[in-house]
Amino acid sequence: MKKSIVFSGAQPSGQLTIGNYIGAISQWVKMQDSHECIYCIVDLHAMTVRQDPSSLRKATLDTIALYLACGIDPEISIIFVQSQVAAHAQLGWILSCYSYFGELQRMTQFKDKLATHKDTMNVGFFTYPVLMTADILLYQTQKVPVGEDQKQHLEFSRNIVLRFNARYGDIFTLPEPYILQSGGRIMSLLDPTKKMSKSDNNCNNIISLLEDRRSLVTKIKKSLTDNDQPPIIRYDLQNKPGISNLLNILSAISNISVDMLEREFSGKMYRDLKDMVVDRLSGFLIELQSSYAYYRNDEVFLNQVMEEGAKKARRKADETLKKVHEALGLIYAP
Question: Which parts of the chain span the membrane according to its record (predicted)?
Answer without folding.
Answer: none
